[in-house]
């Protein structure tokens, strides 16, 4: 059963990774979602696996298929993602790469909304979703290292630095996802790693290379 765990600096460690978007139902045939291909989270899970970690991969409905040799938990909503993440603890490291919908539709129903007969467009009301990263960061069984992401379009470093403090995580992987960067949905990423000692710009790399670099960094921190 342990045959797929390779030797490496993370052998014997448990890594928890969230990835992909969440879908929040409106009715049985409609949902709202964040944009996320799941590419970066998938690459991170594979890179941690390759360093010998046992990986639990909690993913929303993503375009990419999950890597082999890891434990995959497929979820749809933010609430389901939180439940799966909580159930997967304890872990040595948590990397929260998912694009979690900030709000769910409070007046979602289990019957299809119909156009016929109504003169006005439907109104949706929203409720805030639980913050999975913040919950893990203050959990009694908090992983030794908690890594969040911050996809921003403005004031990337300032927003990500504030986010790190607000959420109580150790590191934030920040990036500029403005249209024109090609990062959303693309194969490359250009990130800044924000830690307790400051901000470190990484070069523009493939998402696979970015993932390997992050996994190496995690291994160095945990060993
Ligand atoms: N995150 C989470 N649960 C949420 C929202 C966000 O776990 N309900 C995590 C994301 O996976 C990411 C980090 O928190 O690692 C930052 O997400 P982001 O959407 O940038 O932060 P928010 O606090 O939602 O702030 P914003 O208003 O910028 O969306
Ligand atoms: Ca958000």
Automatic annotation (TrEMBL):
Q: Where is the DNA/pantothenate metabolism flavoprotein C-terminal domain?
A: 10-220
GO biological process terms on file:
coenzyme A biosynthetic process; pantothenate catabolic process
UniProt entry keywords in alphabetical sequence: Decarboxylase, Flavoprotein, FMN, Ligase, Lyase, Magnesium, Metal-binding, Multifunctional enzyme
Question: Which pathway does it operate in?
Answer: Cofactor biosynthesis; coenzyme A biosynthesis; CoA from (R)-pantothenate: step 3/5; Cofactor biosynthesis; coenzyme A biosynthesis; CoA from (R)-pantothenate: step 2/5
Catalytic reactions on record: N-[(R)-4-phosphopantothenoyl]-L-cysteine + H(+) = (R)-4'-phosphopantetheine + CO2; (R)-4'-phosphopantothenate + L-cysteine + CTP = N-[(R)-4-phosphopantothenoyl]-L-cysteine + CMP + diphosphate + H(+)
EC code(s) of this entry:
4.1.1.36, 6.3.2.5
Q: Which domain of life is it from?
A: Bacteria
Renumbered residue ranges of the record's region Phosphopantothenate--cysteine ligase:
15-223
Q: Which residues bind CTP?
A: 102, 112, 130-133, 149, 163, 167
CC cofactor: Mg(2+); FMN
Q: Which GO terms describe its cellular component?
A: phosphopantothenoylcysteine decarboxylase complex
Q: Which GO terms describe its molecular function?
A: FMN binding; metal ion binding; phosphopantothenate--cysteine ligase activity; phosphopantothenoylcysteine decarboxylase activity
> Does the record carry Transferase as a key word?
no
Cofactor note from UniProt? Binds 1 FMN per subunit.
> What family is reported?
In the C-terminal section; belongs to the PPC synthetase family. In the N-terminal section; belongs to the HFCD (homo-oligomeric flavin containing Cys decarboxylase) superfamily.
What role does this protein play?
Catalyzes two sequential steps in the biosynthesis of coenzyme A. In the first step cysteine is conjugated to 4'-phosphopantothenate to form 4-phosphopantothenoylcysteine. In the second step the latter compound is decarboxylated to form 4'-phosphopantotheine.
Q: Kindly provide the name given to this protein in its UniProt entry.
A: Coenzyme A biosynthesis bifunctional protein CoaBC
Question: Which species?
Answer: Jannaschia helgolandensis
């Amino acid at each position: 059963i342990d045959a797929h765990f390779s030797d490496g600096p993370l052998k014997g460690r448990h890594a928890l990774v969230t990835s992909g978007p969440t879908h929040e139902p409106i009715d049985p045939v409609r949902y709202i979602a964040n944009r996320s291909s799941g590419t970066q989270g998938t690459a991170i899970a594979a890179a941690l696996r390759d360093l010998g970690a046992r990986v639990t991969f909690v993913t929303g409905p993503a375009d990419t298929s999950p890597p082999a040799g890891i434990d995959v938990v497929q979820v749809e909503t933010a609430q389901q993602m939180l439940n799966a993440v909580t159930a997967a603890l304890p872990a040595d490291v948590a990397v929260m790469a998912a694009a979690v919908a900030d709000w769910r539709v409070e007046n979602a129903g289990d019957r299809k909304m119909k156009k016929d007969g109504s003169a006005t467009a439907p109104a949706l009301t929203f409720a805030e979703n639980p913050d999975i990263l913040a919950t893990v960061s203050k959990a009694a069984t908090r992983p030794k290292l908690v890594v969040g992401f911050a996809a921003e379009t403005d004031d990337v470093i300032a927003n990500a630095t504030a986010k790190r403090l607000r959420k109580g995580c150790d590191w934030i992987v920040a990036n500029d996802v403005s249209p024109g960067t090609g990062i959303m949905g693309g194969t490359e990423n250009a990130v800044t790693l924000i830690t307790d000692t400051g901000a470190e710009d990484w070069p523009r790399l493939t998402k696979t290379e970015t993932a390997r670099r992050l996994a190496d960094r995690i291994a160095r921190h945990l060993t």
